[in-house]
């Protein structure tokens, strides 16, 4: 083919197949077509011209008697065109000029045969019949046996020369069909691969997300927290884990219905998203519980910059919802495991809840302050 970007239709058949004058001469040499062969063929021309119409009629009588050939030819007009083309071919054959034009016409025949679906067996049998008819005609008129044999041998060589050209385009056109379907199946495979990747991404996203709140699902909490802890350890930064539980959530469900319960959980989720930074990890732990990982954040900052703001934010949407919140900090001196940190934050949350339950009329500000060594992690109650 030509330079990249060039279309097949920009090139002639000869250019596509790289058949040059030199290549034509080379082929003639390979089939040993000598000047004498060409001369003998040209000398037989008058015999052929005189019998041309009858010969072509006979040829098509034989061809159309084969049902599959008659079907391929199809109609009288096509048959008429084929007769003329065949006459031109025989005239060209006996002109003795096997140049670029001649070759180009032969190549075109291969292409047309391929296009209309003439298989190679039918083509070869037609060549055989034509050659037999021409042999009969020439044998009838060339009396000198030696000359007759030489003329028929010369004809044989030119026929072979022609057949190779026809097959050349035939094969090339088959190869380009294979190439086209290979490209198509490659495209199909890569589009399929893309679809599978997209779907996998979607499924992963779905698996990672809690559908009700849009926060991350608990399934990834351990794995994710471990990653946060490793990163914090490398940078010697503290990490805080905030454990949140909705107080008396069951009551909302029981008295106002499950849908109302869902609405509250969504409101908590949305308040969490509102106050979280992009680098925080927000998880629904299950039921009415939530876990937030705050990287590079100590307990005090978690309380002031996160928990207080979260309570304020939730208050805008739900005035009667109270959260119990526990905070556990780890690092920068030493680092707890993910499981231990979750357990600490959970127990801090429980302690805070217990205090709220024993003294529900107090709000957060009035709650007795917890001693730092009283619990591993400070328990906090956020109450409105
Ligand atoms: N509406 C709704 N309810 C849920 C969902 N998941 C869990 N629950 C319910 O949430 C309730 C949680 O109740 P508990 O664990 O007893 O907690 P609580 O009522 O908040 O009690 P305390 O934590 O002691 O204040 C249960 O009744 C669950 O059935 C959910 O996705 N939607």
TrEMBL record:
Residues 237-365 form the GGDEF domain. Its EC number is 2.7.7.65. Its cofactor is Mg(2+). It catalyses: 2 GTP = 3',3'-c-di-GMP + 2 diphosphate. SUPFAM superfamilies: Globin-like (SSF46458), Nucleotide cyclase (SSF55073). Gene3D superfamilies: 3.30.70.270, Globins. It comes from the Bacteria. This is Diguanylate cyclase DosC. One of its GO terms (molecular function) is heme binding. SMART domains: GGDEF. It comes from Marinobacterium mangrovicola.
């Amino acid at each position: 083919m030509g330079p990249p970007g060039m279309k097949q239709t920009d090139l002639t058949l000869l250019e596509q197949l790289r058949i040059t004058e030199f290549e034509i001469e080379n082929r003639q040499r390979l089939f040993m077509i000598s000047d004498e062969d060409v001369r003998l063929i040209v000398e037989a021309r008058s015999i052929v011209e005189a019998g041309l119409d009858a010969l072509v009629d006979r040829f098509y009588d034989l061809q159309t008697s084969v049902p599959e050939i008659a079907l391929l030819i199809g109609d009288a007009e096509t048959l008429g065109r084929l007769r003329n083309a065949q006459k031109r071919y025989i005239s060209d054959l006996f002109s003795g000029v096997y140049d670029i034009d001649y070759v180009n016409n032969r190549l075109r025949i291969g292409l047309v045969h391929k296009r209309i679906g003439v298989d190679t067996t039918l083509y070869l049998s037609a060549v055989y019949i034509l050659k037999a008819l021409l042999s009969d005609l020439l044998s009838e008129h060339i009396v000198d046996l030696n000359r007759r044999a030489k003329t028929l041998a010369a004809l044989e060589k030119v026929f072979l020369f022609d057949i190779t050209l026809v097959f050349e385009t035939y094969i090339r056109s088959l190869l380009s069909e294979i190439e086209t379907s290979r490209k198509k199946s490659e495209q199909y495979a890569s589009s399929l691969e893309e679809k599978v990747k997209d779907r996998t991404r979607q499924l992963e996203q779905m698996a990672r997300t809690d559908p009700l709140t849009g926060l991350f699902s608990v399934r990834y909490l351990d794995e994710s927290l471990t990653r946060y802890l490793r990163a914090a350890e490398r940078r010697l930064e503290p990490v805080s884990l905030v454990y949140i539980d909705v107080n008396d959530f069951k009551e909302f469900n029981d008295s106002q219905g499950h849908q109302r319960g869902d609405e509250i959980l969504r409101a908590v989720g949305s308040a969490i998203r509102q106050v979280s930074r992009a680098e925080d990890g927000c998880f629904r732990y299950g039921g009415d519980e939530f876990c937030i990982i705050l990287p590079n954040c100590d307990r005090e900052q978690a309380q002031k910059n996160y928990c207080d703001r979260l309570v304020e934010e939730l208050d805008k949407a739900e005035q009667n919802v109270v959260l119990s919140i526990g905070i556990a900090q780890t690092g920068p001196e030493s680092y707890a495991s993910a499981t231990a940190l979750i357990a600490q934050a959970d127990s801090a949350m429980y302690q805070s809840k217990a205090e709220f339950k024993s003294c529900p009329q107090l709000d957060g500000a009035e709650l007795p302050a917890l001693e730092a060594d009283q619990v591993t992690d400070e328990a906090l109650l956020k109450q409105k």
